[in-house]
């Protein structure tokens, strides 16, 4: 004979969360968020050169395929060359999951064009012997050298352009806003 237990008091019953539709941000909320970050950028403390130097080093670091290290490299470069650390971290966002592939493909093509060599369409078969492993290693090395050279060139050009544009933009905005 089993003894049935009395029902649990109301305070111990499982509570169900009220049904809420999925949260969607309206266009005005997104626009407000972008404006907030835009104004935060414009009102950062420091000279336009200091802020732009950090941003340029962040963009430079963001052009390299060192996923997970880009922010650290950008901030370290900003510290070494006395740039704004926050804008360096933000500058690395130029590469994100949506832009990795196009940026790296472009960098590789630039490296290929400037160095004048590439892997080409050589077929490396599955390694049956030691020589195939060496061929695979050498083609990988050529690929990395080509990619990093393209990243260096594109990163330098992007950093210089970022610095020039952001210095002019910040200087004009501050002159107009504060009359400096």
TrEMBL record:
Keywords carried by this UniProt record: Membrane, Transmembrane, Transmembrane helix
Domain of life: Bacteria
Tagged with keyword Transmembrane: yes
Transmembrane intervals: 55-80, 140-167
InterPro entries: DUF2062 (IPR018639)
Pfam families: DUF2062
DUF2062 domain segment(s): 32-177
PANTHER family xref list: SLL0298 PROTEIN
Name used for this protein in its record: DUF2062 domain-containing protein
Lineage, opening ranks: Bacteria, Bacillati, Cyanobacteriota, Cyanophyceae, Oscillatoriophycideae
């Amino acid at each position: 004979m089993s003894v049935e237990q009395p029902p649990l008091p109301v305070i111990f019953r499982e509570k169900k969360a009220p049904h809420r539709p999925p949260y969607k941000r309206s266009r005005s909320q997104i626009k407000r968020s972008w404006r907030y970050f835009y104004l935060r950028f414009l009102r950062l403390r420091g000279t336009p050169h200091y802020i732009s130097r950090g941003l340029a080093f962040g963009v430079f670091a963001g052009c390299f395929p060192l996923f997970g290290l880009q922010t650290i490299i950008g901030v370290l470069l900003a510290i070494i060359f006395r740039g704004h650390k926050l804008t360096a971290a933000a500058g690395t966002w130029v590469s994100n999951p949506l832009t990795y592939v196009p940026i790296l493909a472009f960098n590789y093509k630039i490296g290929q064009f400037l160095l004048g060599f590439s892997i080409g369409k050589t077929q490396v078969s599955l390694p049956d012997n030691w020589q195939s492993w060496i061929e695979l290693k050498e083609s990988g090395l050529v690929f990395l050298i080509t990619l990093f050279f393209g990243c260096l060139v594109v990163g330098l050009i992007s950093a210089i352009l970022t610095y020039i544009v952001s210095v002019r933009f910040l200087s004009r905005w501050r002159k107009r806003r504060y009359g400096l």
